[in-house]
Amino acid sequence: xxxxxxxxxxxxxxxxxxxxxxxxxxxxxxxxxxxxxxxxxxxxxxxxxxxxxxxxxxxxxxxxxxxxxxxxxxxxxxxxxxxxxxxxxxxxxxxxxxxxxxxxxxx
Length: 107
Known about the structure:
The protein is built from 5 helices and 4 strands, in the order H-E-H-E-H-E-E-H-H. It has helices at residues 3-15, 32-44, 57-67, 85-94, 96-106; strands at 18-22, 49-52, 74-77, 80-83.
């Protein structure tokens, strides 16, 4: 990964309290897993931003190295990598995700 790409990813992750690297956008998800994650955050009713990895092959590959996680979507809350769709679903069902997001948005 180039230093420029790492800096760009660092900036995106630190500038947004809740950020999802996904296929498509929050208005038009392009895969089922990305759609699951968008639906979870819409249900929580919290502000979040998305980055469409399909629009930028460098980010699509780079974010996998950045997080050391092989799949998309990837969720960051308060600069911390959470995981993908399965982890988001588990955390949502347990109430842990809502709690984490509320803490992040309050900070």
